[in-house]
Design goal:
Blueprint: E1 14-17, E2 24-29, E3 40-48, H1 52-63, E4 71-72, E5 81-89, E6 106-114, E7 125-132, H2 138-148, E8 152-153, H3 166-175, H4 183-209, E9 217-222, E10 228-232, H5 235-242, E11 246-252, H6 262-268, H7 272-280, E12 286-289, E13 291-292, E14 295-302, E15 306-314, H8 319-323, E16 328-331
Parallel strand pairs: 1-16, 2-5
Antiparallel strand pairs: 2-7, 3-5, 3-6, 4-5, 7-15, 8-13, 9-10, 9-11, 11-12, 14-15
Helix pairs in contact: 3-4, 3-7
Amino acid sequence: MSSLNYLYGKPLSEGDFKHTPEDFVVEEVLDIEFTGEGEHVCLQVIKRGENTTYVAKKIAQMAGVAPRDVSYAGLKDRHGVCTQWFSVPVAIKTEVDFSKLNSDSIVVIKQVRHNRKLRTGCHRGNRFIITLRNVTEPLDVLSRINAVRQGVPNYFAEQRFGHDGHNLEMAERLFGGEYIRDKKLRGIVISAARSFIFNQIVSRRVKEHGLAKTWHREVFMLAGSNAFFEDDLNDDIVERLNKEDILLSAPLVGKGEKGLTSVEREWLLEYTNWHQGLADLGLKNERRSLRVIPKELKLESMPDRAIKLTFELPKGCYATAVLRELIMHKDVSKKEKQNPGDLEE
């Protein structure tokens, strides 16, 4: 992400990120009313230093089912203390004491039955409590808070692209004709390619126009939905933007030109091979919000040149997209190679 343009200029301050798991606390926000009965057991779990897929496997072993039968709303970072929900099928007349999973790294804090399994993306978002250490210029971080409250570029974070960009290297080979047999890995590589192109388009827009300026013709997303439409700028559009009923967006490219502005078509020419490769795979054009606004963003100065940040983001958005506009943060947990399960929203 270091090559992507900053909306508010490159930060002056540096600091350490994820010095300990407790420095990165994530709480999944799941707006679901559980039925209290049904063939699925939903578990709220706190995990420390473990990735989501590992916890899912442990739950599967306890329930006597295959790991693929355990569902969750989204992956959470291994290098943190993360609270998230899982669901697992358990026959109605069968009782399983999942508290037996409790250990130094896994704690089951709630267990409730529900009439359906959890699905990817069913959560509203995530709350973050992040402690940055060895901060060199605390006042520069503080001076940026009000600007960042107005929103930051909704970039995909670097872990989306694999260790040292390995997923992008595989994408290049995929679009060059190499076949990837593993369906899960293939999906990760395809997603990385789309995310990379999205980031480049957003970065160029940030550089040339910022995020406040609206083009004469845009593709807008309906807030809280993946639906989008193209329209000319007019009084009604401006009013809806001000109410956040609709959002500015950028493309997740696929087949055809539906949902692409003339400017975006021009910018995408630089990525023709990958764009065509994604189209050939049958992906349809989609959109993603251009900007993400951290809700309830607060900063607290702490002893020993540390800063604590708290905020909430919608699902699919990355805490590091917020951090990069505040501070040049060094992820000190990256002493070991990350795998696809070590992701964070």
